[in-house]
Amino acid sequence: MLSIRNFSGQLSVIKTTDEDLNVSYTFTDEMGHVVLTRQMKGSETHDTYYVYDDKGNLCFVLQPMYQSSANLD
User: Fold this and answer.
1) Which residues contact 65 (CB under 8 A, 6 or more apart)?
2) Where are the domains positioned within the chain?
């Protein structure tokens, strides 16, 4: 079970569109940490996850390629 201290489950999201009309979303938690960036190209998505320790320090960045080969070795 994952325990997240001081997190009520609410995220804010900012949607941006670049000059080629590609959309990206940035999800931020209540403490201002970016937890996910989702880049869209058509119906294809590329997600990057950001993992923080209990002191708010960035520990890991899980890039889109991680999802297809989730191996931490």
Assistant:
1) none
2) 12-66
Instruction: Give Cα 70 to chain centroid, integer Å.
Output: 16
CA distances from 29 to 5, 34, 41, 69 (A): 12, 7, 24, 26
Cβ contact 27:11 at 8 Å? yes
**pLDDT tens-digit readout, 47-61:** 999 999 989 999 999
pLDDT reported for residue 65: 76
Name the strands in the sheet holding 44-52, side by side, starting at the edge strand that comes first in the sequence: 12-17, 23-28, 34-41, 44-52, 58-62
